[in-house]
Amino acid sequence: MHEKSLVLWQHSHAFNQDKKRPGELRTIIVIAITTVMTVVEVAAGVIFGSMALLADGLHMASHTAALSINIFAYVYARRHAHDRSYSFGTGKVNALGGYTGAVLLVIFALIMAWQSGDRLIDPVDIAFEPAILVAVIGLIVNGASVLVLGHNDHHQDHKHHQDHNLQAAYLHVLADALTSLLAIFALLAAKYAGLTWMDPLMGIVGAILVSRWSFGLLRTTNSVLLDKQGPETIQAGIKKHIEEDRDNLVAELHLWSIGPNIYAAIISVVTHDPMPPEYYKQLIPIEFQLAHTSIEVHQCPGEIGHAQSK
Question: Residues 6 or more apart from 281 whose CB is under 8 A from it?
Fold first, then answer.
């Protein structure tokens, strides 16, 4: 057999990862906005003595760095999409970017909690009016960033994996908006009710909420990176469509994510009347998003034959 004829059975493993994703430009816009606001809030927090405001500024600074990692993940996945050294393409770089962002979120939350606890013990005077003004501006900026990154994101099919990289960036700016809101509440409570301890307390509350979001994203991305079995609905659908035909039985099914909304599968079929692997592939609906499928067919014991595989 001539090597050129093998082209009929070969395909690219880029799986559309070579295309620029919508979240990339949106993340760049947010990085630019967040960088400017970070400088303003950190400077204001130091000058006006507000721990909540300083924590918000440092939080935004850390998120600017984290968002830069998200951008790197987008660019790296796109530029190496056709690199054949990656067995199933670079789709998991997306999950890796999301996982890294989630880890950074946890670290930043711990730093926020520690700084706020220290300020509870050793409070400082706060210049309330300018601090509140800067916090309000920060909330507006963060709210705009949430809208930029969250646009159309919730219209995706939640039965499938989302863009984890974009989800991490979205959680970062959402956490920024939350800390800005808490900073405003704390500053108002301290100014008008004399509750100066509310300023550092809101820093601790914000850290707890950010940590909860982070652990959720860690669980999701961790499942992708460790090749956890894909959605049970898709597994059940694959088995149903194969086993409804003839006398087929699915002996083994391995389904895992290789990118956002992209899956690979290895399926072992046992039957009395073996057909070519391509026959069983055609039984699986396109909407299951199986970008790479390997099927091995075994003849049921009693009629022993040679297994066909691809």
Answer: 293, 295
The secondary structure of residue 247, as a DSSP letter, is: T
- Report the chain's C-alpha Rg in angstroms: 26
* Residue positions counted in the chain: 310
Nearest CA among 95, 92, 216, 233 for reference residue 160: 233
Where in the chain are all domains bearing CATH 3.30.70.1350? 232-309
Both tokens assigned to 81 = 């999409």
Indicate yes or no: pTM above 0.90: no
Paired sense of beta strands 262-271 and 290-299, if any: parallel
List of residues 6+ apart from 74 with CB closer than 8 A: 20, 21, 23, 24, 27, 94, 97, 165
Fold of 9-225: Alpha-lytic protease prodomain-like (1.20.1510)
The string of pLDDT tens digits covering residues 169-220 is: 787 778 778 877 887 888 888 888 888 888 778 778 777 877 877 787 788 8
Sort 130 into a burial class: Cβ within 10 Å, 0-12 / 13-18 / 19+: middle
232-309 folds as: Alpha-Beta Plaits (3.30.70)
β-partners of residue 295 are 267
User: Which amino acid makes up residue 172?
Assistant: H
In angstroms, the CA 215 to CA 292 distance is 30
**DSSP 3-state assignment of 299?**
strand
